[in-house]
Structures are given as structure tokens and as C-alpha cells.
Amino acid sequence: MKAVILRSPGGLDRLEWVERPDPGQPGPGKIRVALHGSSLNFHDYMVASGKSPAADGRVPMADGAGTVEALGAGVTDFAVGDMVVSCFFPDWQDGGPTVGDFSRTPGDGIDGFAQEIVVLPATAFTLAPKGWDAVEAATITTAGLTAWRALVVDGGLKAGDRVLLLGTGGVSIWALQITKAMGAMVAITSSSDDKLARAEALGADFTVNYRSDSDWGATVANWADGRGVDHVVEVGGPATLAQSIAAVRVGGHISLIGVLTGRGGEVPTAALMAKQARLQGLIVGSRRQQQEFVWALEATGIRPVVDRRFALRELAEAFRFQEGGDHFGKIGVGW
Asked: For residue range 258-271, what is the model confidence (pLDDT) as tens digits?
């Protein structure tokens, strides 16, 4: 069985293409899955680049999708031949947040899905949306579910709301599609006019280039009738949070889900207090939330935006493409 592993101390040149033993047949409560797709996330890049160290020989990639080949005793959720997709937190099944670290996240604390076959508990997967290929399905695990939880589960998004999205990466483009499917309006930022044009083609109602408009938070607030947006999907972190607070309405909701500009920084507490806004950190979601997201995807007909696909053996090249920041939506890996 072929796989990619990461050698310590990490770095894209430390990703190795190796042969690993076949995991065999599933025991009770487990399933055997022939994997065919994954997708790249910032978290995966942090692990692969060595910025978030993992154990020597770790199989990377948090997202995985493929076909069920065999069922262990007692498994009733799936049938042989089903297309399934992995869960970011395989032990968080339902209810409120219970996990605050990545010790059981595939591709970080445990082996991930950059391999051809896995045998894992059935509860570590959900069904994929009907008719999707493995790369499309793999985009749900991290980016898609994060956007869904931020807007729908935690944010209570409803028709007519106004939403601000930062950038055009995987989470933001998923959030754009979810917002439009829910009948809400979207403002989105980027430093690329070409990417903003692509976002408009997907339904964005208002775009702003943050390079040419340094006061983009106020610009977005003015677009939202001068009162500010109802929701912000904040993926930047410390360097963008002040602008997000400027953009949000009094009593609005900011989902803090990214640290692209750093792990720590100053929070404009007086501005946040004046807005009486809810600033909520979150990391992906539960298996139950993923199941509900899949049902919503089937009902709405949304399909993910996959900018480019690489072969599994080209995983290092895929990360270098991600590193360049030219992608729009998700980057896929298929085999």
C-alpha cells in the first residue's frame, strides 16, 4: 500500500513516498476504506512545513474520502460501496465542543489520509454527498464544515442577513456558497481583482480590494446600510480583527477561525465592547454537524470549488502551490 509520510523535523522536502503494510480487514465497529481523495488546508500546511511539529513518520492530511470495501461486525451506518468522508475530530460525535487540541486529529496527532487504504472506526466517517467524487467530498471535512458551523450552527444565519468573508481560500469560498444558498448577502475581500471577479461570478454582492482600501472594515459597514454586517468569518487573525470589528453591526457575530496573520496580537477591546459583538473561536465541528451539512449540500445542490488537483505522489508540489497563495477555493489531491 502506497502512502506519503512526513519525516521529522518537517518541511516539504521531508515528505516521502513509501510502501506501508496493508491494514487488513476491519474488526468490530470498524470499516475498511479505499481512499481516493484529500484536500489541502492551512492546518495541513502547518504540519507538513514543520511549523506545527508532528511525530516522525506521520501520515499527513486531515481530509480523506473514498469507498467502503468491508464492514466489521456491528456496523450499520454504511454499506460496501458507499462513498464516505472523514471527520476532523473523530471522537467528537455530537453535542457542544469537547476537543481543544489536535491530539486526535488525522494528519497531526494521529495518521491522516495521504495513503491508499485505512481501517478505522465507522464513527470516524460520514456518508459523502450523493454523486460527488472523492476530492469533492474531501473538501467537506475541514473547510466546508468550518464554514457551515460558523454561519449556520453557531451564527444562526438566516435569509436577508449580511455576511463579510475574508479572502478567497477554501473556508471563505465555502462560506460564500453557503451564504447565498441560505438567501443572505455577501461582501468579500481579496488583494486580487481577478479573484474578486470570480467571487462575483459565484454570487458575491459586494467586493473590496483590501490592498487599495486600507479602511475596508468601514467600507463594508457602509455597504451594509451603514449599520454593519450580521456575521464575519474571520480567517486572518490579529492583523485583520480590528477591521472585522469595524465592519460588524452592534450585537453581531464574528467567527474567529483562522490565524493566517499570526497566533497572537492586540485585540481592540474597547471597539469590541462598544459593538457588543460576539467574538467566538471555533475549530471545525462534530460528526453530527457534518452529517447535517451533507444533508444540506444534497438539498441545495452546492458543489465545492476545486482550483487544481494533484496526484498523491505530488503532495509536496501541491503544498508549494498552496504556499504561493494563488489558489481560489480548494486544492485537491486525488488518486
From this structure: 765 556 667 788 88
Cβ neighbour number for residue 246 with a 10 Å cutoff? 19
Q: How much is the pTM?
A: 0.95
pLDDT in tens, 153-185: 999 999 999 999 999 999 999 999 999 999 999
CA 287/CA 16 separation, integer angstroms: 31
